[in-house]
C-alpha cells in the first residue's frame, strides 16, 4: 500500500465515528417519497440535512430543485485547482418503505449496530450508506481536493417516477451537471471485501395483462365445467413464459447470451438469495448468465380473490403485472412489444385479453477502458488490497442511460456499499461499516489518481 493510500486510510478511519453519526441521522428520516401523496415531512428534513452537510464539507452553490414528479433534487459544487477535471457524484436520498415492520429485528428507523458488526436500518446501505461514503472521502481530502466536484442527489429513485431523469435530460441543466466522470453511488460489491465495479445493468419492460371471460364471478357448482375461468386462463398464459428448466421464453427474443466476467458460485447465490434447501435454481446457463446476461421474467402480482376471502366461484376477471428484465443488446420497447405479443398469442378459449404497457427502462453497459475506469480499478485495488472484479447487476437504473445520452464524453462508473448481505429493499437492511471505510478510501484515492491522468 502506497504512502498516499496509507495517509487517506488514516484520515478515513479517524472520520468513521462521524460517518456513523451522519448515517444514524439520515436513517432516522423516514424519507419514503410517495408520488401519489404529498411527500412526507422527513423527505424535506433529509434535503435540509444534506444541504447543511455538504455545505459544511466545503460545497458552494447548494441548491434544491423540485423536479417533474415533485421530488427534490440536491445539487452543489466544490471548486478544485485550475485546469482540474470535474467529477459528478450521484446518490439518492429516498428509501424503500417498511410495510412489514414485524419482520425487522431492530427499529428500521434507528441505526442499530449488532453483534455481527453490521449497522442495521432502512437506507443504511441503499442509499444513505453511499452518501456517508461521499462525505467521508471529501472530508478526508479536506482542502487538498484535486478535482472540481459536483453532487446530484435524487429524491425519488425508489419510485422510478422519472423526476431526475427529466432534470438531467433538460439542456438548461447541463452546465450544472456536466463532468468528465460520473460516479453513480448506488451499487455494491460482489461480496464483502471484494472490490467490484458494476459494468452492466439489465433494463426492464413491464406489462399489465388482464383476462376477461365472464361478466362476473359465477357459482362453481352451478356453472363450473363449461364456464371459462379467467384466472385459470391467466395462469396458463403465465406458465408459457418459462420452459421446464426455468429459462425465460418470450417468443421473438434471444435468451442464449453468456457472461464472461465475474462468475457467481451457485452455492453462494443460494445463500445470498435465501433459496430453500432442495429447491432448484433456474435456467440452463451459469448463475452469472442467468442473472446478468439473459432475460428474466417475474410475475410481480396477481389480482384475484385471496385464499382467505375466496368463495366457490368461477372467476370472470383476473390480471397480473409481468416484469421482464432485459440485458444490454435488447431495447425496452422491443422487449415490451414481444412480451405483449407472446401473451396475446397464448391466450386460451378466445378469452378477452387487455395488455397495457407499464414501466420500462433501457439496459446499460459502461465502457471498461479509459482513464477514469483505469483510475478507479487502481484506486479500489489499492484500498481493498485485492484485484477488482467486474459484474453485472440485474436491477435497472434508467438514469444511467440519461447520463450517457446527455454527457456522451463522460465516463460513468457504478460502485457502492450495497453488497448481497445488505438485504436492500428487504427487512433487516444493513451495511458493513468496513465497506463504508474501504469505499471512502477508494473514492478519495480515485479523485487523486483521476486528477493526475486527466489534469
TrEMBL record:
Keyword terms of this UniProt record: Hydrolase, Metal-binding, Protease
The keyword Protease is annotated on this UniProt entry: yes
GO biological process, one term: proteolysis
Domain Peptidase M20 dimerisation: start-end pairs: 214-349
GO molecular function: metal ion binding; peptidase activity
SUPFAM superfamilies for the chain: Zn-dependent exopeptidases
Pfam families referenced in this protein's UniProt entry, alphabetically: M20_dimer, Peptidase_M20
Presence of keyword Hydrolase: yes
Name by which UniProt lists this protein: Dipeptidase
The organism of origin for this protein: Polyangium fumosum
Amino acid at each position: 500500500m502506497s504512502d498516499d493510500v496509507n495517509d487517506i486510510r488514516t484520515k478515513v478511519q479517524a472520520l468513521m465515528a462521524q460517518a456513523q453519526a451522519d448515517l444514524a441521522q439520515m436513517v432516522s428520516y423516514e424519507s419514503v417519497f410517495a408520488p401519489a401523496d404529498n411527500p412526507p415531512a422527513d423527505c424535506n428534513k433529509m434535503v435540509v440535512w444534506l444541504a447543511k452537510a455538504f455545505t459544511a464539507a466545503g460545497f458552494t452553490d447548494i441548491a434544491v430543485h423540485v423536479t417533474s414528479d415533485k421530488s427534490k433534487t440536491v445539487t452543489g459544487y466544490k471548486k478544485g485547482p485550475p485546469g482540474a477535471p470535474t467529477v459528478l457524484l450521484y446518490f439518492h436520498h429516498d428509501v424503500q418503505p417498511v410495510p412489514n415492520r414485524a419482520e425487522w429485528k431492530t427499529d428500521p428507523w434507528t441505526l442499530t449496530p449488532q453483534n455481527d458488526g453490521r449497522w442495521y436500518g432502512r437506507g443504511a446501505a441503499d442509499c444513505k450508506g453511499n452518501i456517508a461514503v461521499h462525505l467521508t472521502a471529501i472530508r478526508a481530502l479536506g482542502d487538498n481536493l484535486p478535482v472540481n466536484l459536483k453532487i446530484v442527489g435524487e429524491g425519488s429513485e425508489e419510485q422510478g417516477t422519472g423526476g431526475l431523469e427529466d432534470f438531467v435530460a433538460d439542456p438548461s441543466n447541463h452546465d450544472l451537471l456536466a463532468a468528465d466522470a460520473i460516479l453513480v453511488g448506488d451499487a455494491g460489491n460482489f461480496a464483502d471485501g471484494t472490490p467490484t465495479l458494476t459494468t452492466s445493468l439489465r433494463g426492464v419492460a413491464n406489462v399489465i395483462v388482464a383476462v376477461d371471460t365472464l361478466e362476473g364471478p359465477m357459482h362453481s357448482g352451478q356453472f363450473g365445467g363449461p364456464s371459462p375461468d379467467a384466472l385459470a386462463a391467466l395462469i396458463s398464459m403465465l406458465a408459457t413464459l418459462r420452459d421446464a428448466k426455468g429459462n425465460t421464453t418470450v417468443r421473438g427474443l434471444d435468451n442464449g447470451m453468456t457472461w464472461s466476467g465475474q462468475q457467481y458460485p451457485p452455492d453462494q447465490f443460494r445463500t445470498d438469495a435465501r433459496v430453500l434447501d432442495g429447491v432448484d435454481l433456474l435456467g440452463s446457463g451459469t448463475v452469472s448468465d442467468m442473472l446478468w446476461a439473459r432475460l428474466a421474467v417475474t410475475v410481480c402480482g396477481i389480482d384475484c380473490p385471496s385464499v382467505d376471502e375466496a368463495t366457490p366461484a368461477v372467476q370472470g376477471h383476473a390480471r397480473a403485472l409481468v416484469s421482464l428484465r432485459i440485458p444490454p443488446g435488447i431495447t425496452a420497447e422491443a422487449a415490451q412489444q414481444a412480451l405483449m405479443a407472446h401473451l396475446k398469442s397464448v391466450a386460451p378459449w378466445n378469452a378477452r385479453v387487455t395488455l397495457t404497457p407499464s414501466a420500462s427502462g433501457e439496459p446499460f453497459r459502461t465502457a471498461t477502458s479509459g482513464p477514469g475506469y483505469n483510475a478507479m480499478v487502481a484506486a479500489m485495488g489499492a484500498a481493498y488490497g485485492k484485484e477488482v472484479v467486474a459484474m453485472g447487476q440485474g436491477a435497472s437504473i434508467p438514469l444511467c442511460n440519461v447520463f450517457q445520452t446527455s454527457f456522451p464524453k463522460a465516463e460513468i462508473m457504478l460502485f457502492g456499499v450495497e453488497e448481497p448481505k445488505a438485504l436492500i429493499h428487504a427487512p433487516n437492511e444493513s451495511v458493513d461499516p468496513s465497506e463504508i471505510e474501504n469505499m471512502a478510501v477508494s473514492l478519495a484515492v480515485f479523485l487523486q489518481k483521476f486528477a493526475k491522468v486527466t489534469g
